[in-house]
Amino acid sequence: METLSDNELMRKVQKGNIDMMGLLYERYNRQLYRFLYNMTRQKELSEDLVQNVFIRMLKYNDGFKGHGEFRTWMYRVARNVVYDHFKRAGKTPAHTDVADYETRIEGDHASDMAMVKAEELRALEAAMTMLSIENRELLVLCRYQELKYSEIATILNITEGAVKVRIHRALSQLKDNYLRIDN
């Protein structure tokens, strides 16, 4: 059996074969979870938001025109879902659960290097939470989700040049935040 592309699967969903959404879910649920977790820092909420993204993609499947990559459209939908969530909650995605990082350290037997690395990770995450949601989103899409600048430009509906400038500024702000925390 030949493997269908994401765009072909989505076209089948649009024609009424909603079972194809299950294949897209299998391909992308982990990626979406990582994106949403990096935006919210909350495990259960991120799991719920993944479901909301797929429900919204199913409900508004006519929004997929098939001109670009499915993945780009999916991230645009995910972006809207997370923004809608925070708008309804009246919050910004700045929660960091330090316990998530403490579990990564191997108890009393942790080496000095592991402890240093865990502390650096905590400082980096704290610096990330100090960024605006827009800057955090850019860095998550670029660094964690490893999307190309052209894909990010499509998701955000801006030029690729603007993406480069904004990412440079976001990284600069992240560095400043990190140095403030580290001192």
What's a quick, concise take on this entry?
This protein is mainly alpha-helical and 183 residues long. It has nine helices and no strands. It has helices at 6-14, 20-40, 43-59, 70-89, 99-102, 112-129, 133-144, 149-156, 160-182.
Keywords:
single chain, 183 residues, mainly alpha, 9 helices, globular
* Annotation field: number of helices: 9
Mean pLDDT: 84
The counted number of beta strands is 0
Rounded radius of gyration (Å): 18 Å
Silhouette: globular
Hey, roughly how much beta strand do the residues contain? Answer: under 5%
**End-to-end gap:** 58 Å
Low-confidence stretches: 93-111
- The helix-and-strand class reads mainly alpha
Order of helices and strands: HHHHHHHHH
Question: Helix fraction?
Answer: over 70%
Question: Biggest sheet, in brief?
Answer: none
Question: Could you characterize the architecture of this molecule?
Answer:
This protein is an all-alpha fold and 183 residues long. 72% of the residues lie in helices and 0% in strands. It is built from nine helices and no strands. It has helices at 6-14, 20-40, 43-59, 70-89, 99-102, 112-129, 133-144, 149-156, 160-182. It is globular. It starts with 5 loop residues before the first helix and ends with a helix. Residues 93-111 have low confidence and may be disordered.
